[in-house]
Design goal:
It is globular and about 30 Å long. The protein has a two-stranded antiparallel sheet. The chain has 67 residues and is an alpha+beta fold. The protein is 10% helix and 24% strand.
Length: 67
């Protein structure tokens, strides 16, 4: 799992830290976890775990076990 710095953007590489099977494409703004697009909430820019904690009554919006 490595980060490559390119001017103002970062390229994320490695496996998703939640499902450990899909390529990581995003970084959680809360915990810093590298996650795949399935385990990333675009609306909050959080991983599925942090998003479900941030919106405890709305866990149906993010499926942390979908692979």
């Amino acid at each position: 799992m490595a980060l490559e710095h390119q001017s103002d953007t970062m390229s994320v590489s490695g496996l998703c830290q939640i499902c450990e099977s899909r390529p990581a494409q995003e970084r959680c703004q809360n915990c810093g976890a590298l996650v795949c697009e399935i385990h990333f909430d675009d609306g909050t820019t959080l991983c599925a775990d942090c998003a479900s904690q941030a919106k405890p009554g709305r866990t149906e919006d993010v499926d942390t076990y979908q692979f």
